[in-house]
Amino acid sequence: MKNVILRIDTKDKVVRVSAPFGCHHDLIVEIVRKHKEKIKSRFSKRAVFDISEPDLSEGGLIPFLGQLFRLHIEHIEYTTARNVSINHEDRTITLFVCSNDSKRELFHILTQWYFKNFRNILIPIIDKYAAKVGRKANTYGIKIVNGYWGICRNRAKSIIFNLKLIAMPSEVIELIVLHEHVHLKHFNHGKDFKAEMTRLMPDWKHREDELKSYQRYFI
Ligand SMILES: [Zn+2]
């Protein structure tokens, strides 16, 4: 039945099936069932790498710089001691929270931790690539957004980075940082833009492919 096509839309979380007119309903259901595991893994991958939808249950998978960490929740007595710690050896992220903290509170604590880490990771990368390009923005910002990884507002000379990049490997973060700085020189993605990218990051196309492989699960 090569005419039955499944489209897995990870953004809207639906599976669209197109089948020839007259195709029996049971047959369509059977085909969808046959692909159940594939569909499940596509949905879970998206959720796993999207920091705006983290699995905040004990043992849930939390992304950080292209790797996945197991979440451990530790209960503490005082709200002032709320904290996050990461252990690279046993690949865990521990949230120190109060027992009556809601999922929303947990999300807030984790997001603040992501913000703090992303800022620390970004600063040296920005310094490095701003020097290479020979341009620096007047202001830099971090936001959780849908639709872009980075954006350069040329007139205001401001660059915003999407916090969701924290889930990506650092070479992908570097790609976005360089891309936005090259925009301070070349507004569009034309020949000059591409030549500058190649000059400063010879493997930038390879990094873009890596970005695309994650992109399906994010925006
Ligand atoms: Zn661009």
From TrEMBL:
- Pfam short name (any one): YgjP-like
Family annotation (InterPro entries) = UTP_pyrophosphatase-like (IPR053136), YgjP-like_metallopeptidase (IPR002725)
Q: Which residues form the YgjP-like metallopeptidase domain?
A: 2-213
Q: Which domain of life is it from?
A: Bacteria
The cross-references to Gene3D superfamilies, in alphabetical order and at most eight, read: Metalloproteases ('zincins'), catalytic domain
What's the name of the protein?
M48 family metallopeptidase
Which species? Answer: Falsiporphyromonas endometrii
